[in-house]
Design brief:
Elements: H1 19-35, H2 38-47, H3 52-78, H4 84-107
Helix pairs in contact: 1-2, 1-3, 1-4, 2-3, 3-4
Length: about 120
């Protein structure tokens, strides 16, 4: 017989990240706005072995920032055809919007996935 207070959790449950882990995950997304891929790279390299949440969110932010870097490069090449100015502006706006969404989602302790992202680092 089991006691009614005994609750068994499934083996695949994910624990809620701590406040520090949420802050670092949030910072990985937020720094992407201001420093490109450098900020998320530093956070991911320093904390990837200490926290699964920071590892996941750091990689996600880093992958998105590298995707944006590719988009900026393609836009620069397309600037010779005058189309690149529009694609650069679109990539910049999308980068800010998705990074802000990622920042707020990570701050709540949820894992965020960018909808437009080439996953180079897995």
């Amino acid at each position: 017989m089991t006691d009614e207070n005994d609750v068994q959790l499934p083996d695949d449950t994910v624990s809620m990240p701590t406040k520090d882990e949420r802050n670092l995950g949030m910072l990985a997304h937020l720094l992407g706005i201001f420093s490109g891929f450098i900020g998320p790279l530093i956070i991911w390299l320093i904390k990837k072995d200490e926290s699964a949440f920071v590892d996941d969110q750091g990689k996600e932010s880093l992958n998105f920032q590298l995707t944006l870097l590719i988009a900026y490069f393609v836009s620069f090449v397309l600037m010779f055809l005058c189309v690149g100015y529009f694609t650069f502006l679109a990539a910049w706006v999308v980068g800010i919007i998705f990074s802000v969404i990622g920042t707020t989602t990570a701050n709540r302790g949820e894992r965020y996935r960018y909808p437009i992202c080439i996953r180079m680092i897995s």
